[in-house]
Amino acid sequence: MLKALSDGSFSRDFTASIVVFLVAMPLCMGIAVASGVPPEKGLITGIIGGIIVGLFAGSPLQVSGPAAGLAVIVFEIVREQGLSALGPILILAGAIQVIAGVARVGGWFRAISPAVVHGMLAGIGVLIVVGQFHVLFDDKPLSSGLSNLIAMPGQLLGLTNQDAATAFAVGLVTILGMLGWEKFRPASMKLVPGALVGVVLATLVAFALNLPVARVVVPESILSAITPPEAGLMAQLLNPTVITTAIAIAFIASAETLLSAAAVDRMHDGVRTNYNKELSAQGVGNLLCGFAGALPMTGVIVRSSANVQAGAKTRLSTILHGIWILAFVALLPWLLREIPMAALAGILVITGVRLVSVAHVKHLFHLYGPLPAIVWAATLICVVATDLLTGVLVGIGLSLLELLPQARKLGLKVEEESRGEAHEIALRGTATFLNLPKLSAKLESLPAAGLVILNVERLGHIDHTCAEMVREWVERRRKAGNPVELFGATGKMRQFAA
Questions:
Q1: Average pLDDT of 118-134?
Q2: Which residues are 454's β-sheet partners?
Q3: CA distances from 46 to 186, 211, 247 (A)
Q4: How many CB atoms lie within 10 A of CB 243?
Q5: What is the pLDDT of residue 354?
Q6: Which end of the chain has fewer CB within 10 Å, C or N?
Q7: CA–CA gap between residue 52 and residue 32 (Å, rounded)
Q8: How far apart are the C-alpha atoms of 278 and 275, rounded to whole Å?
Q9: pLDDT tens readout for residues 303-338
Q10: Dihedral sign (CA 184, 185, 191, 194)
Q11: Is 73:81 a contact under the CB 8 Å cutoff?
Q12: Phi, psi of 421 (to 5 degrees)
């Protein structure tokens, strides 16, 4: 924060914080609704993610808050164990993240196959779409993704119900307003988020016509939304179900956060992410969310990319956006109560569709063959048909198949040699996700300027997880104006030199 005030970046951080605030407000409430909890629970998480995590973050431009990626698992927790179980689970999950950060295992989360992560996000996207489709009609989602999918035709056939048709129309206004604004907005207003435009438009229509649709319910005071854990917290923390669920949330939230941080790093040329510090900061945030009875948080790519695009330079923008959320819900709760539930559902339907990145699986298939695409598809299908953790474990299990042909020679040697201002990194052996943390740490430790020669002449094999990391590192370094030469590249590695 002091850096922002001293180096003249305050005005850019201030402007960016307003943009992120406008993006975050509807998403915080919408994700809470998708999670089966009151909207104010998402707002509390957004406030903690902005102010508290922003102070301690290891990723200076990443923005934390409630994430669509955890909405499905939270919905299951609330349905099966009740809202009161969420606090102890988050307290334990946050503690796990803090310990993981202190133990410096943050880099290992980057070793998860991109096919697994994107397959997980795609599965979550499908579940959000089929669940929020019912909210578009002022109805409640069913207990499983398959049930929601099967019931979708019935919702459309039920449009003879006037109230359901009205709610659906309000949702369509939101979707069309959001997409229309993103396509046709003037260049001078490119920072105004489409989600905000869609919600405002739908709210004005519902208010002007006094439409009989369900609206957001928030308390008069945000303090009344804070619900500390009930008596017997220690007994709950020792419950095997709570422990298992907490481990799942800690794992998924950490993976999503650190992969989001890596994506944010590719968007700017400033300070790189300290993954262990970021992991601990997320743990502190989730601990506080547990004690406040709020939603779990992760680093969120939508808000983070808006932050970078708006010109943010330091963590001050993230902190300020949390302050703006707090001020808004404290001073203007009556305004939130005018927002139709169908409008929030409309935003989440678009969010869910965008999580299903077919372009990414095409990219994996084109560069690395059918196995990553199969891992992506299997993860997606299992997430939708069973549950999130099963889908991720199936994906990780399938990604291990890539190791089988190299089972007897999994070692990797990374040798560095300085030649004046140039540095040569020689890779010998087999590069897989098992040695990705070591390889990534070596590449990131190289001087910011100067030529780097990546000698892969004696690299026998590289899996798609390591290859994606190297490709992104090469792209980022070249984008910053620092040359990278690949020596001895063959096959897919040759494409990095293009």
A1: 88
A2: 425, 486
A3: 29, 29, 22
A4: 17
A5: 87
A6: C
A7: 20
A8: 5
A9: 888 888 888 889 999 999 999 999 999 998 999 999
A10: negative
A11: no
A12: -85, -5
Strands 298-300 and 63-65: antiparallel
CB–CB of 306/23 below 8 Å?
yes
Q: Which phi-psi region, left, alpha or beta, contains residue 453 (left: φ > 0; alpha: ψ -120 to 50)?
A: beta
Q: What angle, 0 to 180 degrees and rounded to 10, lies between the N-to-C axes of helices 114-135 and 341-355?
A: 150
Which two structure tokens, joined as six digits, stand for 398?
A: 């399938």
Residues 28, 19: Cα–Cα separation, whole Å: 14
Report DSSP letters for 162-178, one per residue. Answer: HHHHHHHHHHHHHHHHH
What's the pLDDT score for residue 497? 54
At 182, list the tokens: 């993103």
- DSSP codes, 117-132: HHHHHHHHHHHHHHHH
Say what angle helices 436-444 and 464-479 make with each other, to 10 degrees: 10
- Strands (DSSP E) contained in 198-340 are 298-300
For 222-241, letters b (16+ CB in 10 Å) and e give: beebebebeeeeeebbebee
Three-state DSSP at 259 gives helix
Dihedrals φ, ψ of 239, to 5°? -70, 125
446 token code pair: 């190289």
**Dihedral of CA 241/116/344/20: which sign?**
positive
Nearest of 261, 280, 297, 257 to residue 103 by alpha carbon: 280
Residue 55 in this model has a pLDDT that exceeds 70: yes
pTM: 0.82
435 vs 237: CA distance, rounded Å: 34
**Token digits of residue 250:** 């800690």
* Distance in angstroms (rounded) separating the CA atoms of residues 84 and 77: 10
The model's pLDDT over 443-464, given as tens digits with 9 standing for 90+, comes to 888 887 889 989 888 888 888 8
CA distance 201 to 210: 14
Give, as one character, the DSSP assignment of residue 238: T
Q: Residue 135 carries which side chain, given as an amino acid letter? A: V
For 228, residues 6+ apart whose C-beta sits below 8 A from its C-beta are 87, 291, 292, 293
Single-letter amino acid code for the residue at 239: N
CA distance 33 to 383: 20
Q: Which residue has 């299997």 as its token pair?
A: 378
Token pair of 327 as six digits: 């001020």
Residue 209 has pLDDT above 90, yes or no: yes
- pLDDT tens figures, 139-155: 888 877 788 888 888 88
CA distance linking residue 252 with residue 69, whole number of Å: 8
